[in-house]
Amino acid sequence: MTLRVTDLAVARGGVPVLDGVTFAVAPGTALILRGPNGAGKTTLLRCIAGLQPPLSGRIDGAEETIAYAGHADGLKAMLSVRENLEFWAQVFGQTDIAPALIAYDLEPLQNRLAGTLSAGQKRRLGLARLMVTGRPVWVLDEPTVSLDVAAVELFAAAVTAHLAGGGMALIATHINLGLDAQTFDITPFRAKLSQRSAASDEAFL
Ligand SMILES: Nc1ncnc2c1ncn2[C@@H]1O[C@H](COP(=O)(O)OP(=O)(O)OP(=O)(O)O)[C@@H](O)[C@H]1O
């Protein structure tokens, strides 16, 4: 099923940030979200992932299909790398964590407590989690933060394999991942200043 966003408006802290956002991500494809700092990428992704409601508009194809990776890795510090993946696999009704361990070169670290990993290693584990969800739509907010060049390549390979299996990816990033993907610049959809100040005024009433 295609992920379809239609005429979406989103707000942060009660202030409209984006308005009229429309795009689609078809099976087997990725869409790269672009836009300067503060443009609203995180806010948009959080709405699509169901973490906050939109102001208006439609999101279709997102029910029970999305695996979201935001700025926080969401690891269980007192579980090992392997136990973290087994935990998430169980949550999503999956069993096989081996491909995720291999894809992110986590086998040598599998018995380490997640809390003892470096920032980049934690990020690798956070991204490996996507693979054990079995979910087709990966919604990723700055996934390569803390990753070295080799790990970025592992990530790009994991996304490419996911797409080849009919998956989808919506990725906010400032770097070039080398993926064969379309880009979508959200800058033209920034809410008008008048909308922003109107909302702020309301907050004072
Ligand atoms: N809790 C908050 N309350 C009010 N405004 C907020 C809050 N969090 C973020 N904002 C504002 O909302 C706007 C959109 O922020 P958002 O994090 O979605 O942008 P972004 O495009 O992801 O930025 P970046 O590239 O820096 O990560 C920004 O102007 C930001 O300052």
Structure write-up:
- There is one protein chain.
- The protein is α/β, with parallel strands linked by helices and about 200 residues long.
- It has two domains: about 1-65 and about 135-205, Rossmann fold; about 70-135, no CATH class.
- Helix content is about 30%, strand content about 25%.
- The protein has six helices and eight strands.
- Strand 6 (about 135-140), helix 5 and strand 7 form a beta-alpha-beta unit.
- The chain is globular.
- It binds adenosine-5'-triphosphate.
* Major sheet attributes: 5 strands, parallel
Low-confidence stretches: 200-205
Task: Tell me, briefly, the overall form.
Answer: globular
User: What fraction strand?
Assistant: 15-25%
**What is the distance, rounded to the nearest whole angstrom, between the alpha carbons of the first and last residues?**
44 Å
By helix and strand content, what is the structural category?
alpha/beta
Bound molecules: adenosine-5'-triphosphate
Number of domain modules: 2
Helical stretch tally: 6
Provide the CATH topology of the largest domain.
Rossmann fold
- The helix fraction, in percent, is 25-40%
Order of helices and strands: EEEHEEHHHEHEEH
State the gist of this model.
This protein has 6 helices and 8 strands; from the N terminus they run E-E-E-H-E-E-H-H-H-E-H-E-E-H. With 205 residues, it is α/β, with parallel strands linked by helices. The chain has 2 domains: 135 residues, P-loop containing nucleotide triphosphate hydrolases (Rossmann fold), CATH 3.40.50.300; 64 residues, no CATH class.
